[in-house]
Amino acid sequence: MDHYKDSELYDLGMNDSEDETTVAEEEVPVSTSKAYIPPSFQQDDNRTRFKSYNGFNTVDPLEVFRNRGCVTIENVKGKPLQTATGRVYSAAGHVSSKTLNFSDQTTSNTSFLQWSAIPSFRKSFMSTDTENKPRPPKCYVPPVRDIDKIYEDDSKSAEDYSKVGDYDEPLDVYGVKTMTTMDCWTSLPPVLADNIALAKYPSPRQIPRVAVPLIIEGMDVVACTETGSGKTLAFLLPIIVKCMNDKKAGAFFSQELTPYAMVICPTRELAHQLFEQASKLIQNTGVTAAKMYDEYAFFPNTHELVRGCDIIFCTPGRLHHFFKEQYVNFRFLRFLVFDEADLLLGEKEFMYDIDDVIKDSNFALKTHYQIIFFSATFSSQLLDASTSYMRTHSSAIICSKKCATNKLCLQQFQRVEKDAKFTTLVEILNNRFAEADASRHPRTIIFVNSRVLCHELTQKLLEIGLPATRISGNYAQNERIDSLYDFRNGVSPILVTTDLFSRGLDIKDVDLVLNYELPWHIGGYIYRVGRVGRVKLGESLTFIDPTYDK
């Protein structure tokens, strides 16, 4: 592969008080990857914990859960599994082999632990000079969409929502012998069920069906299911329900800067998106939500927390900064959620910040809060790392019976020489725009491996008149949010981005993901193509350079 010096995989959450650095990454073979295994807790909470293997799994990390029981939850509608489909094109663009249909039955023995989700990367900090790095205005406050606008997006996808859950995978639940699923919304408080009805969610999909009852019951949970399967709803709903119940019972009172739950995200855009989604669910419930992440101006951010922060959505850098400066109080925390947990657990820089907070004597005792890990990919090393935080006898693991890409995505591959990539890209985009309805240009996400190429490719597309925008880590946060909204609203229907945008972000009407460059590893590919097929059929196209992509 053609590596760039400033290639970017993650958005490192640096403190406002620190200089941001430019990161270079060197690829490490997936087979040698090891998760960051956190050191043991300093606080004595008198509870039995899972044994940590310090990165070397001498036993199956699922064994302790299997010994307590395993339940398989079938799809509520009992429909057959969908098949994964794909096409391979020649350099000329013609189909060079028949359409491939891979039945899921061919991978029936594939465990999600056989996939190494995130390789370890050796990182060298090239420079601490940030004078030329764009920064948002000093008083920057990220804009938030109106609730009506968020509901409007849901309404547009209502018909697709009614079908997308029909083919959800069966789930294995380790750590329980029996369980009751949540098959309809009527078991939730009426005001919350009304908000869900406004969002046009017809019935619970597989992961909320299974995870919500377990979390409400008080269990620590690890959940691993495919992209676009409804994981966000699966952890937000039980948090809102339990917060409402605890307030009603007098077990929790909203206080300034004192959250009930905290959701940690690897990127600012994901934290922002989760805040917006939570905002529509907590209407009229008495539960409040707030966000805190880097490049959100300091004083406005603290004022937002003061106005109400029962649920906080944050990135590791701002979390560490605000906690150490005592701008937030986590003594009464009841929920700690790792969203995109494999990336958080697998990245040392993230976990140094997170561990420094949750091991602090001013943080809630582990006996007082539940911990939840959600991701679309997980390796055995990362599972071992997550269980070091969990309770042995009150925890469960939920995983899809298959570890695969989103099956509502038609995966296509085309042989393209490096020098011909841009010409081929322009031909594809022009053809798709010509075939599209004039009232709506097809939404296309183009993934590259570096910030430099992200900028250069966007400029070249704009120069020839194609409506493109870009998101990568070397742009200021206001530029990133503006680009995201322009893409979401169709102002710029072509988005060029790095893997920064591959995680968790939910834009339901994306038509095509185009991998201009191959990602570094299989996990990156799964997340990239997972930006389509979230509620309706979508396509991905990956350029394969026979010289550079051997």
Structural notes for this entry:
By secondary structure, this protein is α/β, with parallel strands linked by helices. 31% of the residues lie in helices and 17% in strands. It has 16 helices and 19 strands. The strands form three sheets. A nine-stranded mixed sheet has the order 2-6-13-7-12-11-8-10-9, sandwiched between helices. An eight-stranded mixed sheet has the order 4-3-14-19-18-15-17-16, with helices on both faces. Strands 1-5 form a two-stranded antiparallel ribbon. Helix 8 links the parallel strand 9 and strand 10. The N terminus is likely disordered. This is ATP-dependent RNA helicase. It holds the Pfam family DEAD. One of its GO terms (molecular function) is nucleic acid binding. Keywords: ATP-binding, Helicase, Hydrolase, Nucleotide-binding. It comes from Panagrolaimus davidi.
Short structural description:
The protein has 550 residues and is α/β, with parallel strands linked by helices.
Strand order of the largest sheet: 2-6-13-7-12-11-8-10-9
Classify the secondary structure makeup into a structural class: alpha/beta
The mean pLDDT is: 79
Alpha-carbon Rg, integer: 22 Å
Question: How much of the polypeptide forms β-strand, as a percent range?
Answer: 15-25%
Low-confidence stretches: 1-49, 51-58, 89-93, 95-131
- Calculate the terminal CA-CA distance, rounded to whole Å: 8 Å
- Please give the largest β-sheet: 9 strands, mixed
What gross morphology would you assign? globular
Count every beta strand, where a strand is a DSSP E run of 2 or more residues: 19
Total DSSP helices: 16
Q: Considering DSSP H and I runs of 4 or more, what fraction of the residues is helical?
A: 25-40%
Region (Disordered): 1-31
Keywords: ATP-binding, Helicase, Hydrolase, Nucleotide-binding
InterPro entries: DEAD/DEAH_box_helicase_dom, DEAD_box_RNA_helicase, Helicase_ATP-bd, Helicase_C-like, P-loop_NTPase
Protein name: ATP-dependent RNA helicase
